[in-house]
Amino acid sequence: MRCRECIWRCGLVILSICAFSGNASAADHPNEGLIDAQFKAMDTDGDGRLSPDEHAAGAKRMFDAMDSNKDGTVTIAEMDAAHKNVPGKEPKNSDLSSIEKIKVVDQNGDGLLSADEHAAGSRKMFSKMDADRDGFLSRAELTAGHEKMLKRNEP
């Protein structure tokens, strides 16, 4: 997998780690309810699209939720624990593991995800998902991004 693709993939995966709301439903597609709940929670002004600031705030809330010991970093164990708390999200063998997710955005190679590394990955993810380049994410763009990036590339 190319590094650039890894960064985009990890950013999307990071957004899918924690649900912002406990009312995600298990729709026909297993991630659909989760993505819908995330979108609604991040769309704080209710305009049906996510601004860069709304997206960044949602990513920060997610990081804070994963950082269970509040030391400013997320470990593999913390990320694994966060996965178990996501309603409507059952991990599949084709999903990236926590180790793979952290490795993608771990800029200093220490095996931990810092708040700065997480924020940088989130910004890159936003840019990649903004398919129409209007500076906002629609629900369709968020959904398409998740669909594309939640899976590992297997030969």
Please give the structural blueprint.
Blueprint: H1 3-17, H2 32-42, E1 49-50, H3 52-66, E2 73-74, H4 76-84, H5 98-105, E3 113-114, H6 115-129, E4 137-138, H7 139-149
Radius of gyration: 14 Å
CATH architecture: Orthogonal Bundle
Mean of pLDDT: 79
Order of the strands making up the biggest sheet: 1-4
Number of helices: 7
Q: Encode the helix/strand succession as letters.
A: HHEHEHHEHEH
Write down the overall geometry. Answer: globular
Write down the CATH class. Mainly Alpha
- What is the CATH T-level topology? Recoverin, domain 1
Low-confidence stretches: 1-29
Q: Please state the structural category.
A: mainly alpha
State the total count of DSSP E strands. Answer: 4
Main beta sheet: 2 strands, antiparallel
| Cα separation of the termini | 10 Å
> Which percent range describes the beta-strand content?
5-15%
* Approximate helicity band: 40-55%
Count structural domains. 1
What would your notes on this structure say?
By secondary structure, this protein is mainly α. It has one domain: Recoverin, domain 1 (Orthogonal Bundle). The protein is 54% helix and 5% strand. It has 7 helices and 4 strands. A two-stranded antiparallel ribbon has the order 1-4. α1 packs across α7. The longest helix is centred in the N-terminal third of the chain and has 15 residues. The radius of gyration is 14 Å and the shape is globular. The N and C termini lie close together (10 Å).
List keywords for this structure.
single chain, 155 residues, mainly alpha, Recoverin, domain 1, two-stranded antiparallel sheet, two-stranded antiparallel ribbon, 7 helices, 54% helix, disordered N terminus
